[in-house]
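Protein modeling request. Please complete all fields; requests missing the sequence field cannot be processed.
Requester role: graduate student
Desired output: 3D structure, token encoding
Chains: 1
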Amino acid sequence: EGKLVESGGGSAQAGGSLRLSCTVSGFTTDDLCIGWIRQVPGKEREGISCISIKDGTTYYAEAVKGRFTITSDNAKNTVNLQMNNLRPEDTAKYYCAAQGPSFRSTWKFLLPYDFGAWGQGTQVTVSS
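Delivered output (128 residues):
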């Protein structure tokens, strides 16, 4: 069974940077899009980025495009999210999650309910 474990996160000032990492294990296929979903209490989950492990194609939500960069290190089985120029509205709990090939046609839409495996989440807090 696939497992995702987040690390990183924490607090930053607006305009600052943070890096999240997700260690991936136990999946029997590399035909996955692994990415990041965030949630603010009382609000809907928001898909913000995903990377195809097989071919490296990346997807970003408009809210983070140009500020966040997702990468994968297949040798280390990690997916990283570099977050630059952080804003207070980026404050949320960030989850690493994976979606499989059956949702390939909708990977680009970053729909949270298409992600079938989730980590425990890590908090990111950005102060103004």
